[in-house]
Give the backbone structure.
Amino acid sequence: MKMIEIEQWGLIPYAEAWDRQRILFDGLVRARKEGTEYRNRIVFCQHPHVYTLGKHGKGSNMLLGEEQLRRIHAGLFHTDRGGDITYHGPGQWVCYPILNLEDFRLGLKDYLHLLEEAVVRVCASYGIVSGRVKGATGVWLDTGTTRERKICAMGVRCSHFVTMHGLALNVNTDLRYFSYIHPCGFVDKGVTSLAAELGHEIPMEEVRGRLEKELLSLLVI
């Protein structure tokens, strides 16, 4: 079994987390090329209010200007992950796996499916039925209906079989912040959270523990 190190970065500004990710990512890519020792990692953290726009995202999906962003104490970053625009903030678990996919015999499509499956299982542990939407990444509720809503967004970068970025699971997230964007580029779908579905807040560490457990169980080879 390949060892995976779990790291918790707490509440950390997005820019700082991005820099730390890139250092770990570059180090793992370099170690693969040189045949030296390395560690696979899964990082958990939360971010202060911030919007991130993927490399192929459309700026028009951000509905606020700079002054309006300042008023709601949020920033905007153009990042190198896949996907369009999304929001990160307190009450949301962001998970950044920095992995050599070859260690787990995974292609990129299978890896994304694995991330989604881990979240589906976490939702099921709270009695919430979730699934996938054709042509869209992430995890959704009421799929195939007019009430489709996203509970977990995903966007990854993969180069030389090494991953960074990952998923954002809404737990006790302030969903009002999603009203200022077209989340992931969609104008006709909603956003939700575990708390919104269950009607009460959920202990953050409890959710993180369940997500960690599911990810590790799915990554075992």
The CA atoms of residues 1 and 220 lie 6 Å apart. The mean pLDDT is 92. DSSP finds five helices and eleven strands in the chain. The longest strand covers residues 149-159.
